[in-house]
From TrEMBL:
<dbReference type="GO" id="GO:0003676">
    <property type="term" value="F:nucleic acid binding"/>
</dbReference>
<dbReference type="Pfam" id="PF13358">
    <property type="entry name" value="DDE_3"/>
</dbReference>
<dbReference type="GO" id="GO:0004843">
    <property type="term" value="F:cysteine-type deubiquitinase activity"/>
</dbReference>
<dbReference type="InterPro" id="IPR050164">
    <property type="entry name" value="Peptidase_C19"/>
</dbReference>
<protein>
    <submittedName>
        <fullName>Ubiquitin carboxyl-terminal hydrolase</fullName>
    </submittedName>
</protein>
<dbReference type="InterPro" id="IPR001394">
    <property type="entry name" value="Peptidase_C19_UCH"/>
</dbReference>
<dbReference type="GO" id="GO:0006508">
    <property type="term" value="P:proteolysis"/>
</dbReference>
<dbReference type="GO" id="GO:0005829">
    <property type="term" value="C:cytosol"/>
</dbReference>
<keyword id="KW-0378">Hydrolase</keyword>
<dbReference type="InterPro" id="IPR038717">
    <property type="entry name" value="Tc1-like_DDE_dom"/>
</dbReference>
<comment type="similarity">
    <text>Belongs to the peptidase C48 family.</text>
</comment>
<dbReference type="GO" id="GO:0005634">
    <property type="term" value="C:nucleus"/>
</dbReference>
<dbReference type="Pfam" id="PF02902">
    <property type="entry name" value="Peptidase_C48"/>
</dbReference>
<dbReference type="Pfam" id="PF00443">
    <property type="entry name" value="UCH"/>
</dbReference>
<dbReference type="GO" id="GO:0016579">
    <property type="term" value="P:protein deubiquitination"/>
</dbReference>
<dbReference type="InterPro" id="IPR018200">
    <property type="entry name" value="USP_CS"/>
</dbReference>
<dbReference type="InterPro" id="IPR003653">
    <property type="entry name" value="Peptidase_C48_C"/>
</dbReference>
Amino acid sequence: MFAQIYICDSMKEYNTSFKLEIIQNLKSFIPTLQIFQKFYIISNIIEVDVIQQNNDYDCGLFLINYFNILFNTLSKIKNMESIIEYFDKLNDYNLFITRDDLFDLILNYKKTEKKNIINKKHDEIIIKDYLSPKGLVNLGSTCYINSIIQMLINIKDFTKILNQNLKPGNLLNLFQKLQSKGSKIINPLTFITHYKIFGETIELNVQKDSHEFLLSLFNHMELNLKKRILTKRKKLTKEQEEKIIKYSYLSTKEQIQKIQRDYNITVSPSWITRMKKRNNITKKEQISQSIINQSSIVDYNFEQKYLISEETKIFGLRTTSRKYNIPISTLYNWTNKNMLPEEQLKRVKSRGRKARLKKWEIEKVGEWIDLQNQKGIICGGHEVINFINKNFNYKYHKSSISRILQSIGYSSRKTQTKVNNQLIPSFSAKIETKRKEINKKIALKSNNKNFNVWVMDEKGIWNHHPARYTYTRKSNPKPWVKGKLVNSKDTLTATVSYKGEIPDLFWIKSVTKTKKREKVSGMNVQKMLEYVDHFLTFANSGDILLMDNLRSHHNIDVKKKLEDSGIEVIYFTPNGASHLSPLDNAAFKILEDKLRKNGGRRFANYFDKIVTVNNLWKSIPNGTVSFTFKAQTFNQI
């Protein structure tokens, strides 16, 4: 057999996330990787058997390890360049080794008797005894795994770094077994089971690409490397540690950045803690020292001027000054930059703890919120803050809204759905299209006075809210509401007609252990079918049912049951944009009036709707009402 080895520079490039910079001996490691990092090696074995038949066999990188094992055992093979010379000599002696003989020698190297195959061909060619390397048992075409692993363990720098930095586990145990003495056969099932990152890539009886396996192996090794600093940390002197203590007024992140910038050392928060313990520095001493260091920067007594109390010294710097009610750390930052003018303190004074709303101001804000709710305008945090700042000459920030509302006696529900403003015009156009479609179908049935138009929607009581910011007075639900709820995740399904009819409410128990595709808004297909049976008890053939375009609503079984009963279904909300339909929200306004008479305010306010226009639902069939989407609500044009 005659073999030719071609080394083609940059014939094929591979991208891997394996970070070489984390390897300790980078300079010595890179050259050893050149065999598979910079070069793509193609081995063309031209086989010549006794019948002089020539067949080409293309080998990939995974055979290079086997060639190394074979060639290093021959007495006259010193390096890769002498391979061609060696096989030329075999040709001179008219010796032809078939592919089966060669692969039998390579793949079954554990059998020592195979070392004399070439000796039997010619006495002058002598193969020295060699140590058979360990390997994985070839279970169903796993030789490509075997070859790559053996090639890596023959790179001394690689195995050294691997043993030092790989986390304990199956992957480390595998490489340690391959390097140890003793048994020369290792079962690969443990390795394959551990190697879950491949998914379906590693399968028994399936041959895969060795190059892909190599790069994936690097990625897997990266995930299993110990996350620690590989370089030795420099030891600080006593004087340097004392200087670092003065950084304690900074945050932990700022301390680490400053130490790294000043001393070129990377430290962790735990290292700073240990350093303080070594120097017997308590929290009180640390903060007192920081105050002294900072007060020396300016020309006045920092502690006396800003009334820093003893509690501030003991419990930390992230408290507020008794005089200006702003964080001490902010004062320190200003003094460092020599920028502590009285005008700047006056500007932030109104945001402090003393700037509270008076009792009569609280009552005015509450009356204004109630008035806006009666008008159908949903008040957001920005609106409340702007009203307070404009009418009472305060400078509250929007981050203070929660504290303000609690002092007023309101509870806030952050329930606004994020909507892309660019989609609003197209959404409004789709609403108009649907409304015209509904009006047309109602006009066709105008002769039938018995038909009805129904809107169905489901609402979660406690954990699903309308898609807006709403602020409502705190109150507890009535006992009859609590009696209806068995679980906080129960769902209320209600149906309202445009004539104002409200059938019995339908309570759906919480659905547990359902797949995501089966459960939508607390319902799944089976529960939806139960609701349809309930709906058909009061609906008549020829009625129109409007529903959101949800997966559980347009299920095939649900549609078939409704259509068989003569119910025409219209999915109103386009493209699944649920909770933004003005029709069903307006319809539930009628339901709200009924619930207000029977339940507490908190329960009733759950049905505060985006659109609250008198007789809105009754005017829809005539096409006299249209809507446009604004920042906080739907308003009548």
